[in-house]
Amino acid sequence: MAKARVLLVDEDPASVEEQRAALEAAGKYEVVAANNVDEGLSAAAQGGVDAAVVDLPANRPDAGLEVVGQLRRQLSQVPVMVLTPPSTTAPYVRLLERAGELGAKRCVRKPVSPGQLASLVGRLISPPFYELEPMAYEM
Fold first, then answer.
1. How much is the pTM?
2. Distance from C-alpha of 14 to C-alpha of 35, rounded to nearest angstrom
3. Burial class of residue 64 (count of CB atoms within 10 Å of its CB; 0-12, 13-18, 19+)
4. Which superfamily does 4-125 belong to?
5. For the segment 38-68, what is each residue's pLDDT rounded down to a tens digit?
């Protein structure tokens, strides 16, 4: 059985490696990692990606939103999950709304455990029949 290819975009190299390890340990995913917007868009342009996980850094959430928008324009069929800062403030809610407007299928507040990440990516790629809403928020 072929492994699903997942694009990870996160400016924190330690987070990328932690997420890569979590997904690869699940045995179902091949990970393509990117440490910035340009790397993420370049990797996406090469194609063959089944899903994308994009971090919205607390200090530069617009960079993550840029990736979400570009991914949806370049690869409209690829589902995108956004990892967001652990906040419930009004700016955070606006960030979620903007991610949804740009086409993110799921927004998840950090921190995310390794097992939870693998499960969420699996549901992103093959959602259960009962997950028919346009965007799901995990808080």
1. 0.87
2. 10
3. buried
4. Response regulator (3.40.50.2300)
5. 898 898 888 889 999 999 887 888 888 988 9
